[in-house]
Design a protein that fits this description.
This protein is α/β, with parallel strands linked by helices and about 160 residues long. The chain has six helices and four strands; from the N terminus they run αβαβαβααβα. It has a four-stranded parallel sheet, sandwiched between helices.
Length: about 160
């Protein structure tokens, strides 16, 4: 009985070491496949719910996500709540003064992602490797305007 228990524990430890080794040797597996951009303005309750839902569902489904919050001069506790929820420092916070500045920033960010994907597709790989790489590296960007009820509900329920 003891031998069987040690065999099970040993197998588990070897599997865990192998998984960590694969992620260390192949960093492309750790790249985000989804990028959520939350645009907030005085949305302390909705922002907290959305951030918790995105992180919980992405961990549940095993999808690596990146979250950026664009705040349009909130006057309530939105920014302190977001900073409190960002325990590991991986969430980006961008502050803008108005909706026009936010749209300029979003367009610039989308252009950067397109440029990076185009650069990857021009590499000298075989056609099969290029297709697989562009499919994996292409990050899906979802913009959620927290002031729009339909944006919050539809995106959080159907997009993950």
């Amino acid at each position: 009985m003891v031998e069987f228990t040690l065999l099970v524990i040993g197998s588990y430890l070897i599997s865990a070491v192998l998984v960590h080794a694969v992620y260390h040797w192949f960093p492309r597996l750790r790249e985000p496949s989804r990028h959520y951009v939350l645009v907030t303005r005085n949305n302390e309750q909705q922002a907290e719910y959305a951030l918790r839902a995105i992180t919980w569902l992405s961990k549940l489904r095993g999808i690596y996500t990146r979250i950026t919050v664009v705040d349009e001069s909130s006057e309530d506790q939105t920014i302190p709540i977001i900073e409190r929820l960002d325990r590991d420092g991986s969430m980006g916070v961008v502050r803008s003064r108005n909706w026009l500045e936010t749209e300029v920033w979003l367009n610039h960010m989308k252009q950067q992602v397109r440029t990076a994907c185009d650069r990857d597709e021009r590499n000298d790989w075989s056609a099969e490797d290029r297709h697989r790489s562009s499919g994996d590296r292409r990050e899906k960007i979802t913009v959620i305007y927290m002031n729009r009820l339909d944006d919050r509900l539809t995106t959080l329920l159907l997009d993950l």
